[in-house]
Amino acid sequence: MNTLLGCRARVLVATAASAGLLLVAGCSSSGSGSSSKTASGGVELVKAGQLTTCTHLPYPPFQSEIDGKVQGFDVSLIDLVAKNLGVKQQILDTPFENFKTGAFLNSGQCDLAAAGMTITAERKKHVDFSDPYFDATQGVLVAKDSGITSLADVKAKGKKLGAQAQTTGEDYARSKGFDPVSFASSDAVLNGLRTGQVQAVIIDYPVVQGWLKDKANADAFQVVDNINTGEQYGFTVKKGNTKLLDAINTALKDAKADGTYKKIYEKWIGPYDASAASPAASASPSPASS
């Protein structure tokens, strides 16, 4: 695949894996492939010459397919890890519920998971998290003509609230006494709001920001709540995979030190917020649980 694709990054290719689609998401540091599954620093990989990343598409601005290529904030950060290891990144699109259990990591289908995933105590039982790389809040989005002014107002007016299944937004809504309508993906959440299946949605605020960059969405919808739930995102590896975890943490640390993280943040998220860069080496698990 290296010789055929070269550095045409993130090209969609077919795979026999039952999990879904495999997408090339980076370039190797050299044009020649290697038969060894051991990368730089002694990191063992599930497939020679590539860093295989499990994710769940779409989840903009962290990962989504744009013009036939998988791109985003998470993708760009893991590209840095792959570059340091001397390999290319490949992305496997998988169901989000598997990220809680680490199923695809444990089965040897992926080296790591990158999916805008919140660090929680429950998830730490099944996977090892990297240092936090992003602080997230929950945004509540409604139609401009809905008359809804806050999350509390959704309940007071007896309106339906939507959320993406298996995410911290859904968990937070339940903790506040809602019975949210669950959707399989972030795109489905927005479509549910657009079609009137629900009158409000709660989802990670950067996702809402991404939606509102589209003029049609900005004309139709507005944010009425930005809720600080204390969430931090982390990348995950199979429990005990300390060498890969160290490689991820080193790439994050270096990117923050040399300004690369800031450039990636501004490209995908917006104006740089140093407080959202999660510089701490260890995160307190979120009390809620994307």
From TrEMBL:
One of its GO terms (molecular function) is ligand-gated monoatomic ion channel activity. Residues 50-271 form the Ionotropic glutamate receptor C-terminal domain. The keyword Kinase does not apply. GO terms for cellular component: membrane. Residues 1-19 form the signal peptide. Residues 50-272 form the Solute-binding protein family 3/N-terminal domain. SUPFAM superfamilies: Periplasmic binding protein-like II. Keywords: Signal. PANTHER family: ARGININE-BINDING EXTRACELLULAR PROTEIN ARTP, MEMBRANE-BOUND LYTIC MUREIN TRANSGLYCOSYLASE F. This is ABC transporter substrate-binding protein.
